[in-house]
Each structure stands twice: as C-alpha cells, then as structure tokens.
Write the structure tokens for this entry.
Amino acid sequence: MRRLLADRPERYATLASDPRSRAREIYAHNGWRQVGASVLPWGPPMDPLVRDLDPKPVR
C-alpha cells in the first residue's frame, strides 16, 4: 500500500473497512485511524479510516 500512496498529492488517504476484519490490525499498524462508523441496511458495518500522507508543496 505504501507504493500505491507514495506519489499521491492529497493530504489524506481514506478507506472503509469492516470492523470485524483481521486486516484492521494491519491498517492500524500502518497509521490508519478510525474517524467514524457506518451501518447500512444492505451490507456489513463499515468504519471509515484515514491516514495522513506527507504534504506535497502546491505550485
């Protein structure tokens, strides 16, 4: 995932993850933090996660 996010110009990256997923530990270890919760009637609960990216200078 580091390669995927390495050259992004955005200040933050976001994703949604099932809170029951084993991947949540991996996300937390890599700097992702939960910023909310979402429960939709047609699918599993999903938590929005955010990760700070290095700010890029705007020209």
Summary: DSSP finds two helices and three strands in the chain. The mean pLDDT is 88.
